[in-house]
Design a protein that fits this description.
single chain, 414 residues, mainly alpha, 3-stranded mixed sheet, two-stranded antiparallel sheet, 17 helices, 5 strands, 5% strand
Length: 414
Amino acid sequence: MNPMHEVLAVLATVAGAAFPAFERPASPLDAAAGEFQGTAPAGAAQAQPAATPAEPTPERLREAWSFLTEAEQVDAEAYLREATRHMDTFQQSLIAFARGLDPRDPGLLPEAPPTPFYSPDTHAPRQPIDRRRLEPQDPRALRQQKTMFTSVPKTGHELGWRYDWASREVLRIGAPSEPTRVFFNALAGFPPQADLAQALIEQALDDGGQQKTLAAFAHAYTDRSGSVYPGLSLYDAWSSGAEMEMPDVDVLGIIHDLANDWTTWIAPVPDSQHDELYGKVFAYFQDAKRHRGLRTALAMTYVNGSIPLRDGYGGHRDRFHSWWDEQASTPAGIAELLPKPADWAKFLEEWSARIDQDADLTQRGQVRRATLDADAARVRATALAILVEFKALERKARPSPPPPAPPPAPPQKQ
């Protein structure tokens, strides 16, 4: 038996025994094959995995991973991908369906470009403050990111792809085969390409109705001294609820792009005009956030069960699962029903009431979430089994590299 087959045999034993078997919710792949199956019977969502031994702490797992050689880490990631790809789970069927929405090789998807920023030469020529990009590890950038993302729940999912609402493209934001990222995502319950599936579902749900506004808010967050903050967009800043700076160049850039109004406000904008100017920008932002936030929350619950949701959608998580189940986890059906920003509040109220009043549909959502949670537990167990198989948890240090090969002997004189 070759090493790959040996590892997969271990994984089949370790990852399959300790989890409850749910009757799978309807999958879009089932629909394509005409094989709709019933959902789980009453009480299935309350089933719990059997007790398992205490697991190593996250710190211990990171240490064990660091004790593998680079070649071993590459092999471990390859085994993980192979093992999860062959899992006959609901979660994997959803990932496969999402992958089918874009047949391109994921590694060939466009790489995310540097975040643009509004130029003072164009939007605030009377305030010619140079823009300067901070380095990603600049303490000022890290502090600002921490402040702006305080209200965003941590999921433990490090993304390698994201949907770009400005271009309506799925973009690469990391090395898709990076072993450490992929492996630790699995230890958090996220299988390989779950992030790609989420991005593709966001793309499928987006009708482009707010593309222009989201493109404006996709510009980088800056301060009045001209610093451009990496990893922070104007959308992030306005979503954060944190205190932020609003340089004229950024606020006017949004107005110029969206209203094509170059005369009502001119930098430097006097304080007496701030309320009206900021109110207009906020109105644009509110519509964009209602559009994007709802679709992102839906996409996050497409392949993930009990994942934390941002923007106040946490209370709707089981309703999202109910809705996905009602639509056989097919994004096209949901995309047609999503509201315009002006109807967002009314839609959520009526939609929530409809689902809550349907006991069967509510339970189906709970079963869908529980099924995905069990599938995620299998992914985590698989990653743990690979570490066990590589004896990473038994090591005290990374093995020393083999000594270099001796130089070839000089040719013998004849």
